[in-house]
């Protein structure tokens, strides 16, 4: 295979993904909406956590800890850690695959929106890779990759949401939500990383950083399912 053929591989792959999305426009939104299963997995895992799981004091990653004993300043024992780590990986795949598909809703928009959609959804896909790392390397195993994955999942993912909210023609209420909560989430991520909880607890601060992104995946998936921006390439949605 020559260099020119190799260089065209991503282009051909993009065309195939675009064709699939055009033929099945409901798949991408459904993938994003399915991220709601991530919350149900947390409930199922926390249900049997010992000692009783605290939304305020325990980090989300404690649910995926594979060992029973003291971790940091907590005693953790998560018998269903396998389910939580599978949920992290599932969420990452949702972010990657959903972004690849839904990006094609914006390929016929004006140039600025096309670029913003590409960059924003690329950031979301990178965040998905981070979430996969979180599940593949639980907090008590390769902690460096776990922390890096969490930073990508929350930090880069929310940068993507901010870019999409700042540029795309979306309902004003949705744009405000995306801009506000992406900033709040990134700020909470920095505070969590530097152990500044201001009395709300580490678990609460992490959830302020992490949960709005997953809620956005569900809301944005429902919006795309209902309105399909590609059907209105020049009009504001």
Number of helices: 9
Percent of residues in helices comes to 55-70%
State the strand order across the main sheet: 1-2
Strand content: under 5%
> How is the quaternary structure best described?
single chain
What number of domains? 1
Description:
With 237 residues, the protein is mainly α. It has one domain (15-42, 81-231). Helices cover 67% and strands 3% of the residues. It contains nine helices and two strands, in the order H-H-H-H-E-E-H-H-H-H-H. It has a two-stranded antiparallel ribbon with strand order 1-2.
Name the features.
single chain, 237 residues, mainly alpha, two-stranded antiparallel sheet, 9 helices, 2 strands
In short:
The protein is mainly alpha-helical and 237 residues long.
Q: What is the topological layout?
A:
Elements: H1 3-7, H2 9-23, H3 27-33, H4 37-46, E1 69-71, E2 74-76, H5 81-102, H6 111-136, H7 143-167, H8 172-193, H9 202-227
């Amino acid at each position: 295979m020559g260099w020119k053929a190799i260089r065209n591989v991503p282009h051909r792959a993009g065309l195939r993904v675009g064709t699939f999305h055009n033929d099945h426009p409901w798949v991408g939104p459904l993938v994003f909406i399915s991220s709601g299963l991530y919350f149900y997995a947390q409930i199922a895992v926390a249900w049997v956590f010992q000692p009783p799981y605290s939304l305020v004091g325990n980090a989300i990653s404690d649910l995926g800890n594979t060992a029973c004993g003291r971790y940091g300043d907590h005693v953790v024992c998560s018998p269903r850690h396998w389910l939580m780590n599978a949920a992290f990986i599932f969420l990452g795949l949702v972010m990657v695959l959903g972004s690849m598909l839904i990006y094609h809703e914006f390929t016929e928009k004006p140039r600025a929106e096309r670029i913003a959609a590409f960059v924003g959804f690329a950031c979301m896909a990178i965040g998905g890779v981070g979430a996969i790392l979180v599940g593949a390397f639980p907090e008590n195993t390769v902690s460096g990759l776990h922390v890096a994955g969490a930073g990508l999942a929350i930090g880069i993912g929310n940068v993507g949401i901010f870019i999409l909210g700042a540029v795309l023609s979306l309902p004003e209420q949705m744009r405000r939500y995306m801009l506000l909560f992406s900033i709040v989430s990134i700020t909470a991520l920095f505070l969590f990383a530097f152990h500044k909880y201001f009395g709300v607890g580490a678990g609460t601060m992490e959830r302020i950083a992490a949960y709005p992104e997953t809620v956005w995946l569900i809301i944005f998936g429902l919006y795309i399912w209902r309105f399909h921006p590609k059907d209105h390439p020049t009009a504001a949605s």
